[in-house]
Structure formats: C-alpha cells, structure tokens
Amino acid sequence: ISDISQGLLKDSIYKTYPYIKFQNKYFYGDTITFKSTFTSMVKIDKVFPLKGFLNDIITLEGKNFCTEDFRNTILFGSYSQLNIISESDTLIKAVVPSYLRESEFSLILKTCNTTTQIKDKFTINEPILDSISSGEKYIGDVLTIYGKNIHTAISEVWLENIKTELVYNNNSVDSVSIKIPKKLSVGKVALKMKVLDRIIEKPNYFE
C-alpha cells in the first residue's frame, strides 16, 4: 500500500497509476485521477550557512517545496529577498543580494501558496579594514580601501568627517574605492567607514 501525501497542493488535480514488478518485469494498472483536499506541509530541516556576506550562497534543505506552477521566494529581513539559483522539492539555493539595509535577517520561505517562518537568522559578517592604496593622492584622485566584508553598495566612507563619493569597483567584496574630497586638512586625517550598521574608525590614518 502506498501513501500519496507529499508534494500536494490543495484543490490541484493529480494523476498516478499502480504498478508491480514481477520477475524483472513491470505491470501497470489504469491511471487514477484525484483532487487533493490539502496542501502538503512544508518542512525546513536545515539552513546553512547562518553567517556570510554579499554574493554568498544560502542553502535550505527540507520537504515539500513547490517547483512547478509556483515561484519560490525567500524573504530576507524587512526589505530584501534572496536571488534563487537552484530549486527542487527538497533543496533551494539562493544568493545574498547587494541591496541590504540590515546586518541580521529573519528568513521567510514562500512556497506552495504557504508562508513559513524560518527560526534561524542570518548574520552579515563583520567588516574588516586592512589597508589603503599607496602613493600620493590629490583632490579628485581615487583611493582604494582594502579589507573583508566590504562593498560599495552597503558602505559609506568619511575622511576627516567629510563624506566621500564612492566609485564603482566591479562588485568587489574586499575593496571600496572613493574620490578624495576637497577641504581636507594638511597631514594625517581620520578615516571612518560604515558598512550597514557597523562602523570602523581609524584616527590619523590617511595623509
């Protein structure tokens, strides 16, 4: 006896057929058509990793994800959603987008006309500032800041409390480039970088 209870959507029509295997041969019965009276319960067994950065891949493992007729959506906090790159009824892979406003996110899966709150939260890695590009710089020149977990889309930079103009640098997650602003003092000045809600301050850092 077989129990058909997984991957079903309420009020949808399905077809199946019985079969037996005897002496390495298959014998098939008539096709049976039925209408489901319920939606199979979506179950999420595992989400990993729970820490990462932009462009990283998050994997959801579970059961009864819909892959036909309905588009799966993973809401990422209050303002964003993940970019799904692979999906099946037991596995979904998605990429962390660049348009973020928070550093810790709740996850919600929408699939099969149902919404499932995921108990685990995803945290953006702490930014790290390593160094800046060498050589003399003048007003309007480009200065590149190197580190980890930094990105032009979610970063702001100040030199001596003067907010700088960011320069696009090919979607890098380990460098941010800025233009040297006007009205800087002579000598070493402080650098401040804000990545989402995290702030790094380096006094007397740039000359």
Summarize the structure in words.
This protein has 207 residues and is mostly beta strands. 0% of the residues lie in helices and 53% in strands. It has strands at 13-16, 19-22, 25-28, 32-35, 43-48, 51-52, 57-63, 73-76, 80-81, 83-87, 91-95, 104-111, 114-124, 128-132, 142-148, 155-159, 162-163, 165-167, 175-179, 189-195, 198-206. A five-stranded mixed sheet has the order 6-13-12-8-9, with no helix packed on it. It is elongated and about 90 Å long. The mean pLDDT is 84.
Short summary of the structure?
By secondary structure, the protein is an all-beta fold. 0% of the residues lie in helices and 53% in strands.
**C-alpha Rg (nearest Å):** 26 Å
Q: What oligomeric assembly is this protein in?
A: single chain
Give the strand tally.
21
Measured as a percent range, the helix fraction is under 10%
| H/E element order | EEEEEEEEEEEEEEEEEEEEE
Shape: elongated
Estimate the strand proportion. over 45%
- In DSSP terms, counting alpha (H) and pi (I) runs of 4 or more, how many helices? 0
Biggest beta sheet attributes = 5 strands, mixed
Helix/sheet category: mainly beta
Unreliable parts: none
Termini separation (Å)? 78 Å
Strand order of the largest sheet: 6-13-12-8-9
Calculate the mean pLDDT score and round it: 84
